Amino acid sequence: MRAVVLRDGQLQVRETPDPAPGAGELLLKTLSTAICASDVHFMDHPELAIDDPTGRSLYDADRDIVLGHEFVGEVIGHGPGCTDEFAVGSRVTAMPVRLVDGGAGGMRIIGQHPEAQGSFGELLVVSEAAAKPVSGDVSSDAAVLTDAFAVGEFYVRSAQIQPGEIAIVIGAGAIGLSAVAALASRGVAPIIVADFKSDRRELARDSFGAHIVVDPVDKSPFDAFRQVRAERGLPGPAVVFECVGTPGLIQNIVESAEMATRIYCAGGWYTGDTLDITTATRQGVTIQFGGGPHPQDWYGTLEAIAAGRLDPLPSVGKIISLDEVPDALDLARRSDGPPRIVVHPNGDVA
After folding, report:
1. Residue 99: exposed, middle, or buried by beta-carbon count in 10 A (0-12, 13-18, 19+)?
2. What torsion do the CA atoms of 113, 267, 302, 65 make, to the nearest 10 degrees?
3. Beta strands in 42-184 (DSSP E)
């Protein structure tokens, strides 16, 4: 099959062996897949996958790794032991993990392990136990965004925002927009969004439900928080969703926060970062890192998209072919493209 292959630090679009479904696995024709910043982080920081103690990811310079982990595919084959739940021709998606020996041997992250080739290819193998059907009415390009929007759902669910508290979303990329959507679906108001790019601020407000958008060059989101709290007589603290991952940002948030602020860190720090614990203690903040999304967030987001309660498609700014993926990954590296770019590895998708 043709695929976007990482090997020996080099990214190429070329032929690589077709994946073969094992016991309890489905072979898919990849209909739609989305580019995520995690794909770039895996390429740029292979040391994290060389020494991954969990075994879920593995960077091996001498083996092909097909990137990509957000996908919808058409079932074209079954491995031994599959049930009749997914007929040939049906559309499915799944959380991006390949179960080893049905899960008894652990799992591999799809797109981040040579034994779990990813979705930037014409074919893909997934575990039947992890697969879910994609209904006939929802587009593949909408369903493929489940993974990204499940991240925001997880953090917002974890936050358990109470009346009188004010949500601040830092960054309006795909993950920031997912947090805005999850907040808006719960009727949280006001939602403050800060991003340097005007088009992303407008997208957060006009398509996903943000109420107040600010350019950090002109105004601190905490100044906006204090202003709206005074205007509306809201007694609660800020609940901050950090969705950027820029080094130094968490320290800046901690220094700017007021007592009892809760901070949920959805950004990725693949180069590490530092935090002054004394300042955090003095400020009395609560900080949560990672931990999700959980299956309930992922499958709940898929159901919301299928039912039409969530439309993630405004976050898609471009649809491309496999040959365009390397350039699109470079855009993601620079945070210089639309929040989400979708790839059609086998051509157009209805």
Report:
1. buried
2. -20
3. 65-66, 71-78, 91-94, 97-99, 107-109, 123-127, 131-133, 166-170
Q: What's the chain's length in residues? A: 350
Residues facing 35 on adjacent strands? none
Tell me the C-alpha distance between 99 and 129, whole Å: 8
Distances (CA, A) of 100 to 24, 73, 174, 289, 339: 10, 20, 30, 27, 33
Query: 307: which strand partners?
Result: none
Alpha-carbon span 229 to 166, nearest angstrom: 8
- How far is residue 131's CA from residue 79's CA, in Å, rounded to a whole number? 14
Angstrom distance (rounded) from CA 297 to CA 310: 13
CB-based contacts of 207: which residues, under 8 Å, 6+ apart?
311, 314, 315
Going residue by residue through the chain, which has 350 residues, state the pLDDT in tens, using 9 for 90 and above. Answer: 999 999 998 999 999 999 999 999 999 999 999 999 889 888 888 877 787 888 889 988 899 999 999 999 999 999 999 999 999 999 999 999 998 877 777 889 999 999 999 999 999 999 999 999 998 789 999 999 999 999 999 999 999 999 999 999 999 999 999 999 999 999 999 999 999 999 999 999 999 999 999 999 999 999 999 999 999 999 999 999 999 988 899 999 999 999 999 999 998 766 678 999 999 999 999 999 987 899 999 999 999 999 999 999 999 999 999 999 999 999 988 888 899 999 999 987 54
Q: Which two tokens stand for residue 280?
A: 């955090």
Distance (Å) of CA 249 to CA 165, 219, 265: 22, 16, 10
Helix (H, G, I), strand (E, B) or coil at 53: coil
Instruction: Report angle CA 314, 318, 324 to the nearest 5 degrees.
Output: 155
Terminal-to-terminal C-alpha distance of the chain: 22
Q: How far apart are CA 178 and CA 279, in angstroms?
A: 30
d(CA 131, CA 71): 11
Angle formed at CA 172 by CA 272 and CA 274, multiple of 5 degrees: 20
**Apex 178 CA angle, 325 and 43, nearest 5:** 35
Residues 221 and 249: beta-carbon distance below 8 Å: no
